[in-house]
């Protein structure tokens, strides 16, 4: 690999790294040479085993990122197991679907808390030691719904819009201190979260008709962009959102 | 083959870069060569030696073709010898010119020249080489956009119009060609320290106000774009289409 993309010896954290896009992202980082900690609600030794096959260290930590007051403790636990963190990927996210007119307050707060509040807090907590060391890479997983409104998912759209915006805010403050904060915005990906869409024949066809690439994305499609943003190849990229959407946003 | 060798590797690929003599075009050419691509360097003056030497230093190979991208009508014919000799896998439309004059007085002849080089010739290059890529079922096109693909700039209306057109063309081609295996994307460089921006850097007041607005606190270097170009030229970006990737030290978010 081009030396610019090499992550050998770097320590990375991926929230929601046990399945779906997060797992593929974790595997990509491991394959590029990084040691990886995955965070998920339950421990996943089998994913650790997969990650270890690339030769680096891997750990799995059971933690609910919606538990904001414990984020500092989470950092200590990870630093103890892996060392100082070079790369943070805020991938974990949740979804609730209701018509806007009857969207329950409880679900709204749940989605906003995990997708936006927890991500901001993790950026703060993990960003601080990065700022002290004068380097670090933070990659937040945004969404097409950082740009668009979606349908029956107003909380998700609001939370992903927030992620893209505060990514710019953090970049404005942290770029000159050697910490890159950016986003990746996945398009329509064939993952668990979209199973309902994929199984809905009408929606599935409507979506497919609008993707210039003519196919749903896969977790593997995320790896290149995440490795790029985690590596020195992107040192002058700050506050930006890379769409990995098969062309959707331009259609 | 291991992932590390494979994912961002351009081994066995042929890349054509316009405006490869200096600055951003040179850095991208050397970056692609370092990743393993054979380079076709396109320029309009016979002075490509600096780029050629840098490519040799990274153990790369290159061939140079001279043509004037301002001559849009003659361009298709001039590309034929290249297409007969090579299957182009990667096209980087980097060559560009800028003309400064307030909009109210902006010279029409200059307007036409800027649009010819910056957008009309780019469309011809995309069309001609894109056809070969589509027939091959694979290809990567990277157009060099600008911050002025998003913003208006000042005293450079022709440049701004041409760079907005680049962003639009990139998306238009992606919509038609993504399903044919050809990814069309753009890179929008921020304020990069090259010959083109020397006047700005020498103007103390402008330099200060620009630097104050760049979150990264520094001008970009042409080398800062090499990694992005390799990413968009490699299979690491196979699901990225019609995207304008901004490399600006954070400028657009400020």
UniProtKB/TrEMBL annotation, chain A:
Keywords: Oxidoreductase. The keyword Oxidoreductase applies. InterPro entries: NAD(P)-bd_dom_sf, Sc_DH/Rdtase_CS, SDR_fam. The keyword rRNA-binding does not apply. Belongs to the short-chain dehydrogenases/reductases (SDR) family. This is SDR family NAD(P)-dependent oxidoreductase. PROSITE patterns: ADH_SHORT. It comes from the Bacteria. SUPFAM superfamilies: NAD(P)-binding Rossmann-fold domains. Gene3D superfamilies: NAD(P)-binding Rossmann-like Domain.
Automatic annotation (TrEMBL), chain B:
The keyword Oxidoreductase applies. Pfam families: adh_short_C2. GO terms for molecular function: 2-dehydro-3-deoxy-D-gluconate 5-dehydrogenase activity. Keywords: Oxidoreductase. PROSITE patterns: ADH_SHORT. Belongs to the short-chain dehydrogenases/reductases (SDR) family. This is 2-dehydro-3-deoxy-D-gluconate 5-dehydrogenase KduD. It comes from Ureibacillus aquaedulcis. The gene is kduD.
């Amino acid at each position: 690999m081009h030396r610019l993309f090499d992550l050998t010896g770097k320590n990375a954290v991926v929230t929601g790294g046990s399945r779906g896009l997060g797992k593929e992202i974790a595997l990509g980082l491991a394959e590029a040479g990084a040691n990886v900690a995955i965070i998920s609600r339950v421990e996943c030794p089998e994913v650790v085993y997969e990650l270890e096959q690339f030769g680096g260290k891997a750990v799995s930590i059971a933690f609910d990122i919606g538990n904001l007051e414990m984020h500092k403790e989470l950092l200590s636990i990870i630093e103890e197991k892996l060392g100082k963190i070079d790369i943070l990927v805020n991938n974990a996210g949740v979804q609730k679907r209701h018509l806007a007119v009857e969207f329950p307050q409880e679900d709204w707060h749940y989605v906003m808390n995990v997708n936006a509040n927890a991500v901001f807090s993790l950026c703060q907590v993990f960003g601080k030691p990065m700022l002290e060391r004068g380097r670090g890479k933070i990659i937040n997983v945004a969404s097409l719904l950082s740009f668009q409104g979606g349908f029956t998912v107003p909380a998700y759209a609001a939370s992903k819009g927030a992620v893209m915006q505060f990514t710019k805010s953090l970049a404005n403050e942290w770029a000159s201190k050697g910490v890159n904060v950016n986003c990746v915005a996945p398009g329509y990906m064939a993952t668990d979260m979209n199973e309902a869409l994929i199984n809905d024949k009408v929606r599935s066809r409507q979506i497919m008709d609008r993707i210039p690439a003519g196919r749903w994305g896969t977790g593997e499609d995320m790896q290149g962009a995440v490795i790029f943003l985690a590596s020195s190849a992107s040192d002058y990229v700050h506050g930006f959102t890379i769409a990995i959407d098969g062309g959707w946003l331009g259609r | 083959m291991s992932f590390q060798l494979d994912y961002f590797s351009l081994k066995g690929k042929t890349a054509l870069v316009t405006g490869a003599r200096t600055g951003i075009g040179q850095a991208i050419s050397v970056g692609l060569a370092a990743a393993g691509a054979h380079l076709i360097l396109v320029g309009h003056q016979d002075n490509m030696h600096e780029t050629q030497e840098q490519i040799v230093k990274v153990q790369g190979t290159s061939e140079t073709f001279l043509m004037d991208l301002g001559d849009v009508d003659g361009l298709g014919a001039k590309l034929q010898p290249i297409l007969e000799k090579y299957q182009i896998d990667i096209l980087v439309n980097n060559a560009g010119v800028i003309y400064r004059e307030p909009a109210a007085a902006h010279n029409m002849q200059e307007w036409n020249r800027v649009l010819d080089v910056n957008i009309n010739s780019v469309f011809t290059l995309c069309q001609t080489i894109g056809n070969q890529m589509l027939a091959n079922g694979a290809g990567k096109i990277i157009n060099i956009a600008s911050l002025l693909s998003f913003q208006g700039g000042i005293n450079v209306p022709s440049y701004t119009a041409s760079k907005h057109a680049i962003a639009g063309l990139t998306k238009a081609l992606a919509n038609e060609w993504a399903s044919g295996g050809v990814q069309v994307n753009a890179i929008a460089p921020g304020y990069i320290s090259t010959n083109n921006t020397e006047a700005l850097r020498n103007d103390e007041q402008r330099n200060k106000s620009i630097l104050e607005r760049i979150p990264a606190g520094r001008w970009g270097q042409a080398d800062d774009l090499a990694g992005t170009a390799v990413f968009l030229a490699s299979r690491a970006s196979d699901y990225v289409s019609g995207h304008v990737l901004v490399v600006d030290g954070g400028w657009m978010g400020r």
